[in-house]
Design goal:
The structure holds two protein chains of two kinds. By secondary structure, chain A is an alpha/beta fold. Chain A has twelve helices and eight strands. In chain A, helix 9 packs antiparallel against helix 10. The N terminus of chain A is likely disordered. In chain B, helix 2 packs parallel to helix 5 and helix 4 runs antiparallel to helix 5. The model of chain B has no long low-confidence stretch (mean pLDDT 94). The chains are: A alpha/beta, B alpha+beta. At the A-B interface, helix 5, helix 6 and helix 10 of A face helix 2, helix 3, helix 4 and helix 5 of B. Chain B: It comes from Kryptolebias marmoratus.
Chain lengths: 320, 144
């Protein structure tokens, strides 16, 4: 068990924090990012490199990452190189050659190309590294400049005020999709258009697989997977009948929903059901989709009290 | 006419792009990078309208995000400047305080909003409630 735990630990993404200012320790910045007075227990210490566990938690996801204090480029191990997804560098802005000390890091960063690149200093200095210089440097290397204590605070009357300091660093770390990301449920403000697109893509890929692959709708109906798996072991031609059985079940439910009193609740559930059936259809292969659509359309016609004669004989051959 | 709409963060990463005239996929990255560089390199006191190649860029910064629109010379840049503000206000209304994260994780909704406001490179709707009507209807249906 401990072996697997170590394994998962190995692949946790890392946020590399380095300081090119001997007066400023990496740990100082890590403390501020984590937002605690004291540093957490290092999960690991490897020579001059220290690892600190941290969980990014926001409205959409949680992600376990490791903040990794690395004093210089020589300390970059292959493990760091493989897991580095963000790079934060502090430099001394009071001396004119402050940015020079970052030079050794450039090839490392260009080689690994982490998603998040942040250049940090206390505040840009007219007599040291000016804001313009720092910004030009950032533009050239696709970094974002963050001043921990900027001279000019952003206008608070602004409807969309800029964040500064550590708050901005955390925000930038938030706005990244980490490899260890775990999406939260129930915060999906979208209407699942993307997810259904993804589903249909997955499906078309699966269709190219050999016929031994599982039922097309597997995964879209988690509750039924056990039943489906059982069926896949049987003959291939049974697939169709299983899909049909599921559809019939859905239609049965549709009918039940409309059989009762025509109240608002029932009507809303009817639409939810239709949406579910539509989602399911989107993951079916083309031919089955047509048959499915026909069934749903007929069932809906019946459900809203349409005349059966109207749709009788419209079937594309199959009995409805 | 509007040629394209971009949303980029301060690192220059594109969060949203929408083109209203054909631009090859392979050329988009370079075009976006160049346009973004052009906007990011300017300070806050400089004008939000920039001449760029044979067209014009209109941009606004909202916290760490930039909205950049490429427009032809026949387009009214002030109306585009206001369109950007309106677009961001619609997003803010829909997400109740929009952030970069909202845009990243609800790109489908952002595109629906944009498509309600701009069609074929022209502004077609500016009323916030009407822009949001289709999304509100869809969400109501999904939530049941």
């Amino acid at each position: 068990m401990s072996a697997t735990e170590e394994n998962t630990n190995m692949i946790l993404p890392c946020v590399l924090v380095t300081s090119c200012d001997s007066e400023f320790k990496e740990e100082e910045l890590i403390k501020q990012i984590i937002g605690s007075e004291t540093l957490p227990q290092t999960s690991e210490r490897d020579g001059t490199v220290a690892w600190y566990p941290w969980t990014i938690n926001n409205k959409y996801y949680t992600a376990d990452v490791r903040l990794c204090a690395v004093p210089n480029t020589y300390a970059v191990s292959s493990e760091i190189a493989q897991s580095m997804q963000a790079f934060i560098a502090y430099f001394d802005s009071k001396v004119t050659d402050g940015l020079e000390k970052l030079k050794p890091w450039i090839p490392v960063v260009e080689d690994i190309t982490p998603e998040v690149l942040i250049l940090v200093c206390d505040r840009t200095d007219e007599n040291g590294v000016t804001k313009h210089e720092a910004q030009q440097w950032c533009l050239g290397h696709a970094f974002e400049l963050v001043e921990l204590n900027p001279l000019e605070l952003p206008d608070e009357d602004d409807d969309f005020p800029e964040s500064t300091g550590v708050k901005r660093i955390v925000q930038a770390l938030d706005a990244n999709v980490w490899s260890s990301v775990e999406m939260k449920e129930g915060h999906n403000q979208g209407f699942g258009l993307m997810s259904s697109l993804v589903a249909s893509r997955h499906n078309s890929r699966r269709c190219q697989d050999p016929p031994s692959s599982s039922l097309p709708e597997e995964g879209t109906l988690p509750n039924d997977t056990a039943e489906q798996r059982e069926n896949t072991t049987k003959a291939d031609r049974q697939e169709d009948s299983v899909v049909d059985a599921m559809t019939d079940l859905d239609i049965q439910e549709l009918a039940n929903l409309t059989a009762g009193d025509a109240d608002v609740d029932n009507f809303e559930r009817l639409f939810t059901k239709l949406k579910e059936m539509k989602d399911k259809a989107s993951s079916l292969p083309h031919e089955q989709r047509k048959v499915h659509a026909e069934k749903v359309a007929k069932a809906f016609w019946m459900a809203i009290g349409g005349d059966e004669d109207e749709i009788d004989g419209l079937s594309s051959g199959e009995e409805s | 006419m509007i040629k394209f709409v971009l949303m980029v963060n301060q690192q220059g990463q594109t969060r949203l792009s929408r083109y209203y005239e054909p631009v090859e996929l392979s050329r988009r990255a370079a075009l976006e990078a160049a346009a973004v560089r052009c906007c990011l390199s300017r300070n806050k006191d400089q004008c939000s309208f920039v001449e760029y190649k044979d067209f014009r860029l209109v941009y606004r910064q909202y916290a760490a995000l930039y909205v950049v629109m490429g427009v032809t010379h026949s387009e009214n840049e002030l109306s585009i400047y206001e369109l950007i503000q309106n677009f961001v206000e619609v997003l803010d209304k829909y997400f109740s305080r929009v952030s970069e994260l909202d845009i990243m994780f609800n790109l489908d909704s952002v595109h629906v909003i944009l498509d309600e406001m701009i069609q074929n490179g022209h502004i077609v709707e500016t009323n916030k409630s009407r822009v949001l009507a289709p999304l509100t209807a869809i969400n109501k249906m999904v939530d049941g």
